[in-house]
Amino acid sequence: MPSDLPPRSVALEIIAAALLFGASLFAVHFAIADQANGKPFRAIEAAGAAILFFGACFDPVNWIWRLLPFTRRDQIIQPPPWAKIGWLVFGIGWVVFVVGLIGKYTHHGH
Fold it and tell me: Which one is predicted more confidently, 38 or 63?
């Protein structure tokens, strides 16, 4: 853990994690609705997005800052000890999302 990074703000992490978890639940809702409506690849795509957002909950502040184009180096904070698990889950979610995306566009006629 680099020592030149600012310390974590637990309150900010809780707020950011709650927003990302809400986005994850919203994506789960779409995954269930798409599966019920007979759109399995859209459901896989939405499930991947849900996993992606859930993985982001493990390091919420840095995840949000790294995605924004105007982030400066001094805005990145010390990651929590479980951040590597979150980035692994995020990567799995990205793979599931891409599988759903590929399936959606290659099986659009079915």
Answer: 38
